[in-house]
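tool=predict chain=A
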Amino acid sequence: MQIAKSFSAIDIADLWKKYKKNNDLVARNSLIENYLSLVNVVVGHIAYNLPAHIERDDLISSGFFGLMDAIARFDISLGVKFETYAKNRIRGTVLDYLRSKDWLSVSLRKKIKTYESAYTKLEVQLQRTPTKEELAEFLSMSLKELYNLEANMSTASMTSLEDYISVEYVSDQGNDSIDKKLNRDFVKQKLKEAIEKLPPKEQLIISLYYSEELTLKEIGLTLNLSEARISQLHKRAVLRLRGYLARSKSDFLNN
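tool=predict ok
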């Protein structure tokens, strides 16, 4: 088994200079080797919540191309931490791959979109989190049908939230227009406010999942709760965050 080379911080800085200044492909390949573990970290975080028929190797392959793209696009003069930038790029390519495979059935995807739209509309209309009964009535379904739909939503919600958080929390590197920056700053502030309004346990789950990058199983072990319960709380937190942002957008447009 071949052991990956270990590069010092000075080595890494030198490799970046060689690659960016001279397009040194040997230096680029060494950078890829050094940061390859980022692909495993991101894929491991996403793959844990996906159906068994999704091949991990396929996710690794798409993530590898994301890493190569990140290295090619990274601007060392901006002083941004590469690992943060690369994880966002890798996550984006993996999610693009999942969307291209369309592993959700058409009917389930339609039901999920209808559910999320209903939840957001009720949040705006009621100015609070809707009850199960209100959701069921709005969707013209029984409580049993609503519970069954929510049970089937867990995996899909994970992927859509990964996509959502990566867009709202982490911008692409580069020069944005002032309008884009102001809009992004507004969303970040509102998202921060939304997270602070979550119940303490849901705040902790969001933090552990997105900041600490723990899996649902690891969070369950940390909080002494079942993985299924963590998934349920995570999904509820996601919907609350979206609902709060929808209300904020509505208030902003109406003022």
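The domain at 104-255 is CATH 1.20.140 (Butyryl-CoA Dehydrogenase, subunit A; domain 3). Residues 165-176 have pLDDT under 50 and may be disordered.
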